[in-house]
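Reviewers of the previous submission asked for a worked example of the structure-prediction workflow described in the proposal, so we include one complete record here. The input consisted solely of the amino acid sequence. No template or homolog information was supplied to the procedure at any stage.
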Amino acid sequence: MLLSFFLLTLLWHETGTWGLKNGILHNSIWLEQAAGVYHRESRKGKYQLTFKEAKVVCNFEGGTLANNEQLALAQRIGFHVCAAGWLAGGKVGYPIVKPGANCGHGKTGVIDYGYRVNKTELWDAYCYNPHAKQCGGVLTDPERIIKSPNYPDEYEHQQICYWHIRLKYKQHIHLRFLDFDVEDDPSCFSDYLEVYDSYDDLLGLVGRFCGNKLPSDIISTGNVMTLKFLSDSSVTGKGFQIVYKAINPTVPDSTIGTEDTTIQ
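From that input alone, the workflow returned the following C-alpha cells.
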C-alpha cells in the first residue's frame, strides 16, 4: 500500500493527473479503479448493515472490507461519499473531498468514527477489490455518454452504481436521456435511477425514474451532479443511455453530440 501511495504521489507530481487542475477536481477513472474501493449499502437502504453483514456484502462480490489506508488513498484521488460505512477490523468512517456543513463537519479526508465496540450497529460498507469492474465512476470530461451495466443487454440483479459528474467551477451540466428501460412499478421501489443536483445522494434529489418513458432533460444548478442506479433481485430491463454536456455560462448550449465515449 505504501508503494502504491508513493507511485500515485509521484504520478501526481509528474503529470498532475489528480487533484485540482484547471478548476476541476480531476480524477482519472483508471486511478479510481486502481484504488479498488467502493461504497455499498443494504438492499433495505442506507445504514442497515451490521459488521458481519457488511463483510458478507463485500465477500459476495469477491472483495473484502476496505481498511482505513485504502479508503484514504481512494479519497486522495477523489472518492467522496457522504455516508458512514464499516471498514476492516470493525472501524467506521467515510471519505470527504468537498467540505460541507452537512457532512464531515467542514473537514476533508477520512472522517473516522474509530473502532466500534458494538458490531451490531447499523452502517453501510466500504469494500476493497482492485480487480472488480464496478459500475459508475467520477466523470470530469465536458461530455460523456453514460450507460447502465451491459447496455444494450439487460442489466444484472442487485446492483448499486454511482456516477459523480464534476465539472469546472461555474459550469452547469445538461443531462439528456437517449434511451430508458428500467423495471416499472408504481412507486419506483424495485429498480430505479435517481438524479441528484449535488455532490452526493443526500441532498438535491431531482427525481427517481423507472419504466420506459424517457425522462425530461435536466440542467444542474452548479458544476456537480450524482446519478444512482439500483436494481433488486427480480425483474430487469434493457437499462439506459444518457449523455451529459458541460454548459458554459458565457457560451450558448448547442446540440449534444452522440460520440460513444462510454462509462458504465
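DSSP finds four helices and 18 strands in the chain. We consider this example representative of the routine output the project will generate in years two and three.
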